[in-house]
Amino acid sequence: MSKVMEMIKRIPPDTKKKLAGKGYFPQEGYIVKHLPVPPNCLSVPEVSDGFSVMSSDPSLTVLRKVLRKVEIIKNSRSGDPNFESHQVEANDLQAVVDQYLQIRGTSKPARDIETHYGVNKELNESSTKAWLEKMRTLFIRKGSGFSSRSVITGESYKRINEVGIPLEVAQRITFEEKVNNHNMNYLQELVDQNLCLTYREGLSTYSLRESSKGHIYLKPGQIVHRRIMDGDIVFINRPPTTHKHSLQALSVYIHDDHTVKINPLICGPLGADFDGDCVHLFYPQSLAAKAEVLELFSLEKQLLSSHSGNLNLQLATDSLLSLKMLFKMYFLDKFSAHQLAMFLSPALPQPALLKANSVGPCWTAVQMLQCALPSCFDCTGGQYLASQSEIMRFDFNRDVLPTMINEIAASIFFGKGPGDVMRFFNVLQPFLMESLFVEGFSVSLKDFFISGAAIRNIKRSIGKISPLLYQLRSIYNELVQQQLEKYIKDVKLPIVNFILKSGLGDLIDSKSESAIDKVVQQVGFLGLQLSDRGKFYSKTLVEDVASHYHNKYYDEGDYPSAEYGLLKGCFIHGLDPYEEMVHSISTREVLVRSSRGLSEPGTLFKNLMAILRDVVICYDGTVRNVCSNSIIQFEYGVNAGDLNQHLFPPGEPVGVLAATAMSNPAYKAVLDASPSSNSSWALMKEILLCKVSFKNEPIDRRVILYLNDCGCGRMFCRENAAYMVKNQLKKVSLKDVAVEFIIEYQDQRIGNESSQTEAGLVGHIHLNEMKLKEMRINMAEVVKRCEETLKSFHRKKKVGHIFKKIELSCRCLPSQVLREQTYWGKKCRKTRERESTQNICMIPSESPLSAEIFRGISSPLSMLWDGTVFMASLCVVHLVGLKWQNLEPDNSSFTSCTGLLS
């Protein structure tokens, strides 16, 4: 090598120029001085089962061969080699190095090699288990030879049960067809048109791209692999799959773009949108798989949600916008009506206006809409009426338009069938898109800017909320939290009114609080961004942000609400550094919630599926586990003779439906950062994990009460019954109905046990008679409960002799003295020591009688009474219509309730 380098360096510059003119450039880089050996992280690791090597890097073997050859050459030399031996050594070494350079060169795997190849570090002690884990990872999990993955985009002019597949995908994936006498001519035409890739005859597979057998004539029994064509059936899924309807079987059409195209109407069941979401496409090969896909996953069979019973198809934002714009314009001239009529099935009706000024005949939006209805269709609702496919009454308020369209579609489903529903949406969707494209829609800057006076009022109102925020941050109170939410809602009200009147109001759902809140953050104010409860960040972070605010930024009087995370800035006017930092924390928490927080719902879903996936409805109507054939339920979901019985056919996987009915809300509750969703998810976990993580705490000692439906037909009967139960179970103590407490000293009192006259103290407690009547509390019951409490203290050694001398009496005061109050006295006999008497007659807040509970449920109440502990717990329930057989505790480890039916 060194001699060759010296020869290249000795070439004169003139000779190099002449060689360059002929296209020869002497390059020193072609001479390999050092053998490249990449680091170990680029090598394929050796995986062994303990006895033999299952996977190794062949380049390492060749590299050892190169080093061995170098050692052989060094050891074989006894002096300077001659030219012939040097040539032989160089040829041998060059051949080995060339072999190494051809093999060497792999892509860099993950740094954690064991994790990349599915080997769990905890299983290193057992190499056999590690090998099985590797096999599952590489060959079993998430593997399918007939599948693809692509980004989705919308195509509104195609049918809702169609999916567009790129040509580059359709040319690579095939369907398997077996040649028989019925399809032989059809498949022969596909072969002649080069639409088949391979065919199989016996155990041999032949390529039809570059066939060496000349022209191929198919014979019955051969297997042909043809390309995907228009009309083939595939099913798509957008992971993660959290409910049944996220798998949809669709018909294929081929296009020349590079994304998968779907109708926007099926984004709802897929849980997808067009901001970069990806879907998986699966291509069933066998006839059994195709039949199963059509029967289980076809869109026509999944129009109704198995969870809620509502239609899965919903008009998207652009369709609703077009519908709103259509009814704003209402009248269409001849040109516009005929343009839109191309997408409607029947002919246009007679125009509503034969001549309007100089425009000519005009049609109404209602007339255009009724052309999408099926023939001889009748339906009625609160805001609409249709007779013989003619709309007689229609409320075109934009707030109720989506609801009315869904109700009409549901009426078509139950009255005409799923086929007419699909035809209704296949006509309505392109009609609305064409209407939007013809008329257009724009949003200007005036839709984003609120008046300066309104902004100043908002900032002034936000400054007044600081005391509530301080109180809530110091001691959490649910009532204060509700008051704060109401106050913020009142502050947002003028902004919401501005939004709904602007062009932005047509773009968003006016009934969706989340959609309105996002626009409020754009044009109004950000609102409450930080909270010390129910978030993934710690309370320490909130305190650090408040400390940072005091040290670096505003004076407290200038912007007091910012300390507690309530920001008055908006995106359209820009955020200052502190507001941007707080908003970034809030946004990051949502990202962390969507990644880390989904582990619990995911585990819940997997566990539920493992238990319930074999539970189905059988042909006899019972719900059984198909593995053990055990009966779980004699009838599913409905009463005998119910018209909705057809919604649950035999074979319906009700176990899977039950699992997804719990996991899907769990996913939504975790992803939604609102306080209500956090509390609902916490309650769900408390119920599901009650036997696993039971603790003898007050939150674990709750009972769920179910009320029967009385069937009286009156409005709000269930609500009134629930409030009555709540009022009966609400804790009511003596001090809650007491008006005042008076201590009176009387010198001469005659006791009951003797005729001895002795001095004593009388305590008067005045009760509010109106409150007692409202709560339906009998005065005799109050006295009885108090006497039982006093008797319980008779056995106390230290204070028992004092309580034995206490007498109770009850009477009503004259109306002219105290009209709506009831009097009862507590008389204390004179004792030897004045201190003892003073300890007895304490103020009501320290007295055991003042805390006496004569209605409702209470946790054990600890009261200090003259050095002793008084435990009072009493439950008196007056319920009518309580479903006692369905009474169940949140945690089955504990339940204690005393019930008295009235």
UniProtKB/TrEMBL annotation:
Which Enzyme Commission numbers does its entry carry? 2.7.7.6
Q: Pfam families from the entry?
A: RNA_pol_Rpb1_2, RNA_pol_Rpb1_5
Any GO molecular function: DNA-directed RNA polymerase activity
A GO CC annotation recorded here is:
DNA-directed RNA polymerase complex
Which Gene3D superfamilies does this chain map to? 2.40.40.20, 6.20.50.80, RNA polymerase ii (3.30.1490.180)
Q: What keyword terms does UniProt attach to this protein? A: DNA-directed RNA polymerase, Nucleotidyltransferase, Transcription, Transferase, Zinc
Where in the numbering of this chain does the RNA polymerase N-terminal domain appear?
28-327
**Ribonucleoprotein: present as a keyword of the record?**
no
Q: Which InterPro entries match?
A: DNA-dir_RpoC_beta_prime, RNA_pol_asu, RNA_pol_N, RNA_pol_Rpb1_5
Asked if the record carries the keyword Zinc, the reply is yes
GO biological process, alphabetically ordered: DNA-templated transcription
Q: Which PANTHER family match?
A: DNA-DIRECTED RNA POLYMERASE, DNA-DIRECTED RNA POLYMERASE V SUBUNIT 1
Record-given protein name: DNA-directed RNA polymerase
| Species annotation | Senna tora
From the broadest rank down, the organism's phylogenetic lineage runs:
Eukaryota, Viridiplantae, Streptophyta, Embryophyta, Tracheophyta
